[in-house]
Design a protein that fits this description.
Layout (H helix, E strand, L loop, with lengths): L11 E2 L12 E3 L1 E4 L2 E3 L7 E8 L2 E3 L7 E8 L12 E8 L12 E8 L12 E8 L12 E8 L6 E3 L17 E3 L11 H12 L6
Pfam family, one: Pentapeptide
Organism: Companilactobacillus kimchiensis
Protein name: Pentapeptide repeat-containing protein
Length: 211
């Protein structure tokens, strides 16, 4: 896992709206705190080597967003549209991301720590070295994805959909779910705990496991 390459001592205090000072909507080397961004519609914004601390995005649509070496701390990204994004060496820490749309995006070396992602759209993604730690992904659409070195640790996955996704090597054993939707023919190689295995036996085969 590669972490964001940021030297916070050299960051310049600013506002997210500094992005409009550049013709190509570029925001770089910034330290943003307690900013409120509402109903912004920007095509292909670029954010690099930046820390966003308690920045609230409300009703924003950032199609083809590019993030490189960025840290989000305690940000609210709920119900934003970040489809077709390119996200590289990025950390989301304690962020609220309910209903956020990342469809058709590329994520490489990305960490979600203690994030709320319920009802998010995470479909048709190309994910490489991505970690979800201590996060909630209830009712998340996680369909038709390409997975390479993906890790879920201590996450809430109830009613998550993982259809059209090859699950070989994926380990969900430390996570919790009452129900989950996956394709039987794509589940080979999935790692689960005994309780989860009992659910899958009932789900696919109608078998009830007695403890």
């Amino acid at each position: 896992m590669e972490h964001p390459k940021i030297n916070e001592d050299y960051l310049e205090t600013g506002s997210f709206f500094d992005i409009f000072n550049e013709e190509d909507f570029l925001l770089t080397n910034k330290d943003l705190k307690n900013d409120f961004v509402e109903n912004q519609n920007i095509s292909h914004p670029i954010i690099e080597q930046t820390v966003l601390d308690h920045v609230s995005f409300s009703g924003c649509n950032f199609n083809k967003l590019e993030l490189t070496d960025v840290i989000f701390k305690g940000c609210d990204l709920s119900n934003c549209v970040f489809d077709e994004a390119s996200i590289y060496r990025v950390e989301f820490q304690n962020c609220k991301m309910m209903g956020t749309d990342f469809d058709s995006s590329y994520l490489n070396n990305v960490i979600f720590n203690n994030c709320l992602l319920d009802l998010a759209n995470l479909n048709k993604l190309n994910l490489k070295v991505v970690q979800f730690n201590d996060s909630s992904l209830k009712d998340v659409s996680f369909n038709e994805n390409k997975l390479n070195k993906i890790n879920f640790k201590n996450c809430e996955l109830d009613k998550m959909n993982l259809l059209g996704t090859k699950l070989r090597g994926l380990d969900l054993s430390s996570c919790h779910f009452e129900s989950i939707d996956i394709d039987q023919d794509l589940a080979r190689g999935l790692k689960v705990n005994s309780e989860q295995a009992a659910f899958l036996a009932r789900y696919f085969l109608g078998i009830t496991v007695i403890y």
